[in-house]
């Protein structure tokens, strides 16, 4: 087997198995008190499928905001007194290492009460695959100028899966 084919196999495997880096809200500077109730981060979160191994990336102004991971009770009460973790770097990245809910609030006084909070639910590995497959997939965030958020066409993912499954069979022949 040539080294080029080995590289191709590793590339396909990494595309299929690696978690995604998902920009919170789909673009920079969405971690702030919402201007209206028409488009909140939780509405964005409900439309996005999260899986174990994905990472959330917040981009925000660290001079006047922060991110706190909290319990469900503290999320509901906007209680900042006992966070699980706190971040104030303006470029916060958190890996989602388990299925289930994750709760985040702003660490700044009064921001959570005004709607700056986020609930993310990570799908179980056993989640109904046909339901998840119909939903758009979020691509990793890139350093390119322009859009910070790109949707991958499900057909592209299917083609990569077929290539990954068929290529080893071709190599055996």
UniProtKB/TrEMBL annotation:
Entries under InterPro entries matching the protein: Cupredoxin (IPR008972), ENL_dom (IPR041846), Phytocyanin-like (IPR039391), Phytocyanin_dom (IPR003245)
GO molecular function list: electron transfer activity
Broad class of the protein's primary localization: membrane
Signal peptide extent: 1-19
Subcellular location: Cell membrane
Tree of life domain: Eukaryota
Record organism: Brassica campestris
Gene3D superfamilies linked to this entry: Cupredoxins - blue copper proteins
Membrane topology designation: Lipid-anchor; GPI-anchor
Keyword annotations from UniProtKB, A to Z: Cell membrane, Disulfide bond, Glycoprotein, GPI-anchor, Lipoprotein, Membrane, Signal
A matching Pfam family: Cu_bind_like
Domain Phytocyanin residue range list: 20-124
Keyword Membrane set for record: yes
Coiled-coil zones: none
Stated role: May act as a carbohydrate transporter.
Family: Belongs to the early nodulin-like (ENODL) family.
Protein name: Phytocyanin domain-containing protein
Listed SUPFAM superfamilies: Cupredoxins (SSF49503)
The keyword Iron is annotated on this UniProt entry: no
Gene Ontology cellular component list: plasma membrane; side of membrane
